[in-house]
Amino acid sequence: MNAREKILARISEAKPDKAALSHHLENHPRGPQPMDFDDLKKRFAERALKLSSDLVEADQLNLAPGLIANYLQQRTLPMKGVCWPALNHLPWLDSGLDIEARPAWNEDMVGITGTFCAIAETGTLLLLGGEKTPASVSLLPETHVAIVDPKRIVATMEDAWDLLRRECREPPRTVNFISGPSRTADIEQTVTLGAHGPYRVLLVLAP
Amino acid sequence: MQNASLDFKRQVTVKLADEKLQQALSRLQSRFVEGRSAVISEIHDLQETRDAATRIRDRVLNNLGHWLLHFEEQATKRGAVVHWAETAEDANRIVVEIAKQHDVKTAAKSKSMVSEECGLNDALENAGVKVVETDLGEYILQQAHEAPSHIVAPVVHKNKEEISDLFANVHGLPRKTGIAELCREAREVLRPAFLNADMGISGANFLIAETGSALIVTNEGNGRLVTTLPRVHVAITGIEKVVPTLEDASTLLRLLPRSATGQSITNYVSMLTGKKKETDPEGPDHFHIVLLDNGRSSLLGTPMQEMLRCIRCGACMNHCPVYQNIGGHAYGWVYPGPMGSILTPLLDGIEKAPDLPNASTLCGACAVVCPVKIPLPDLLRKLREKQLALGLRPRQETALLGIWSWLALHPRAYALATRIAVRAMKVVGGKEGLLHRLPGASGWTDGRDFPAPEGKTFREMYRERS
Amino acid sequence: MRVGLFVTCLVDSMRPRIGFAALRLLEAAGCEVFVPETQTCCGQPGYNSGDSKTAKNLALKFIAEFEGYDYVVVPSGSCAGMIRVHYPGLFEDEPDLHERFLKVAERTFELTDFLHRIVRLEKITGTFRGSLTYHDSCSGLRELDVYKQPRALLARMPDVALEEMVESTTCCGFGGTFSVKYGELSARMADNKCRHIADTHAGTIAGGDLGCLLNIEGRLRRNGDHDTRVLHIAEILAGGED
């Protein structure tokens, strides 16, 4: 017997009721859910700010680059960086931004992404890694800017999974919940923003 | 990891006298205990959620073989390679082989208690692979050649000054004093480690059977880096970590960070499924998942099975008055506090940790906060039973227990014995009414007086009265 | 109603006056109180030392002595918890006994729980005056949900001022045999408790479990504090605490 067989042989289990177990998988029932949120956008914004994210709102997607440029300028951050190839069509240059569409490298200081959806419950973004949505863009740069479509704010994690199941046949290699700038409290349990990932996260709500 | 639990009693003395440690521990209590209490109430039906989480874990454990096989099938289908390790040594051997197979020179690692359990770093280093811990706490410990003292906050026992000195010494840079500066220095020193690593090693908080994914819960971003940048990703975790569906994981995720660090959610929850696809611009070419048994399967179907529900939040230790006073190192192995006092004897041998199940007042604070309702005091008590049955208790203790039990079952002899004892103690207690020394109970009187009895028993006075 | 008083081994040997205080309180509440003479110990020291065989034998002894009463009242949360929460579990493989233990468990109460919730004692005769702070013993608190009950009873005493200490629900370090086996650790935990008591500037520390009270008193006295009074809640409620 190899290790796998030996371990499985040691596992004393009730004879599985295969029908019940596959029923559980197929129906993937939800646990207790948070109470309904009256206004998903409001809840999302409140929670995101609590997580130390910054947030601005644009009337339309084309105006997002201008708001992003303002944000970077106000904080004297570099006006250049990378974005998801999926966002290459936005008028970056018009706003004075020098943005390349590609995965991020170590030197990149600003990374701009979209979001698959956002979760109002905790103020969380859900990002899927992929050909046009490389995960490194939200990870390596010190500033992460995420464009969020308010129509794609869902209430709970479970709603996000349903959306994922509906729209993607297969989960991509990386699915990331992102909830604010990276942080650590390892030294004296004191929360410090900016550990190995971004120091700041700007959310741009834009339809 | 080498087990030093036999040294528990001596370590208690050392830790109680360590003022720096005592200060550090008071911080843990204020941040984590108060932090949990502030956010756990966000869950409006907390008890129902704990019940649901408990059912989820029990469902898995009752059919662990089924769910593991389903997980393996789904993970394999998406390009992961699943390995099964019976023991810590097997797990180390498997990871070393993976490293050799992919010509790995350096590995970047995010925090994994299972890898600590195995002593994986030493095994890799012995095989010529350079391992860099990248979780800030674990990195500090690696530089200081120390073991973690907490499963969530591994370096809770060290203060800022010690870390400043350590960094100045190891990095050869000007000494930093601010916490933010120290964090930045670690970030800058560690970036190349991520970029240059051939292999990333992570743990997994949950394995999702539905999708064959490893799910990791992190704050710093190092977990994302080690699973995204290197060309090989190895996730190592215990066989009990599997959960059926994403919804099941979600219920547990509502409880885990709130119970652990007092966060509503951690910064990152990363779900890693399969290896890099052809169209993916990044991600590992190889994804290996190592499932460690190391004694876990033998707990299934026994009264100790409930321990396998554990999701490693650390709330039990944060709320434990014993842990709060001595910290994690005294426990001597990877897992400290109440969960460790149960896991250490179960996974590493009951004879190796005779003190741990006994070094608890069974106050129950741990059970109240456990998100998956593990009856920790009951399990500690069951281990005490096992110790007694195996003859692992000191002879003097069992002799006293025998005398007490005989007397308690023989009321007339008991009445006589207590009458004599309370009279004698009253005399010794004198005018002050205090005994400064008690033969056979110096454990009490070394640190406390023993208030003298009144001199008669209730039952004799009651009989006189009526 | 006929109430069996399980006086507990510690009260029996160390502080009979607590037993008599409990007796007076129950009588004041209109109960007919019985004290089975052969009672000894609930078995907790054995149970918590891994000797469940002795614990079972003592449980059987207990049920023979107390099954006939309408209620069983215990001036200790930890002994009441042993009877209510742990006895039935010792007989899970013996359905008839299990059933009988469940029934006795339902009728067994910690003293303040009984006085407040079952007989709803309104008139408190205690003569205690001044400020006190209250330590919540672990078993009563976490196994029996005793927290409000002693406070509600104390609130009916106009001359008593309750000064809450921080961490009143944190273990004092007693833990039965733990206090001897791990004396140093136990004393440190008691020390923390003493500090919190001192911070309230209340002259008295009260509680519902004699084990904890002896532990706290022992540490207070060793630390040179001979002024802070250490009293069982029954003594305060029933009077005669002087």
Supply the key terms:
heterotrimer; A: 207 residues; alpha/beta; Rossmann fold; four-stranded mixed beta sheet; 5 helices; globular; C: 242 residues; 2 domains; four-stranded parallel beta sheet; 13 helices; 8 strands; 53% helix
Q: Regions of chain A with pLDDT < 50 over 5+ consecutive residues?
A: none
- Specify which chain pair forms the largest interface: A-B, 68 and 99 residues
Spatial strand arrangement across the major sheet of chain B: 1-10-7-4-2-3
The percentage helix of chain A is 10-25%
- Terminal-residue CA separation of chain B: 65 Å
CATH topology type of the largest domain in chain B: Rossmann fold
**Overall geometry of chain A:** globular
Instruction: Provide a count of the helices of chain B.
Output: 21
| Top CATH class of chain A | Alpha Beta
Total domain modules of chain B: 2
Outline of chain B, from the CA principal axes? globular
Would you tell me the structural class of the helices and strands of chain A?
alpha/beta
Describe this structure in words.
The complex is a heterotrimer of chains A (207), B (466) and C (242). Chain A has a single domain, classed as 3-Layer(aba) Sandwich (Rossmann fold). Chain A is 25% helix and 23% strand. Chain A has helices at residues 3-10, 18-27, 40-50, 64-74, 157-167, and strands spanning 54-57, 80-83, 98-101, 110-113, 117-119, 124-128, 143-148, 153-154, 174-178, 183-184, 192-193, 200-205. Chain A has a six-stranded parallel beta sheet, with helices on both faces. A four-stranded mixed beta sheet of chain A has the order 8-5-6-9. In chain A, strands 10-11 form a two-stranded antiparallel sheet. The model of chain A has no long low-confidence stretch (mean pLDDT 96). Helices cover 51% and strands 11% of the residues of chain B. Chain B contains 21 helices and twelve strands. Chain B has a six-stranded parallel beta sheet with strand order 1-10-7-4-2-3, with helices on both faces. In chain B, strand 5 and strand 6 form a beta hairpin. Chain B is globular, with a radius of gyration of 26 Å. Chain B starts with 7 loop residues before the first helix and ends with a helix. In chain B, 58% of the residues are buried. Chain C has helices spanning 9-14, 16-28, 44-48, 52-66, 77-90, 95-106, 111-118, 138-144, 148-155, 178-181, 183-200, 210-222, 233-238; strands spanning 2-5, 32-34, 71-74, 108-110, 130-135, 160-162, 204-207, 229-232. Classes of the chains: A alpha/beta (207), B alpha/beta (466), C alpha/beta (242). At the A-B interface, helix 1, helix 2, helix 5, strand 9 and strand 10 of A face helix 2, helix 3, helix 4, helix 8 and helix 10 of B.
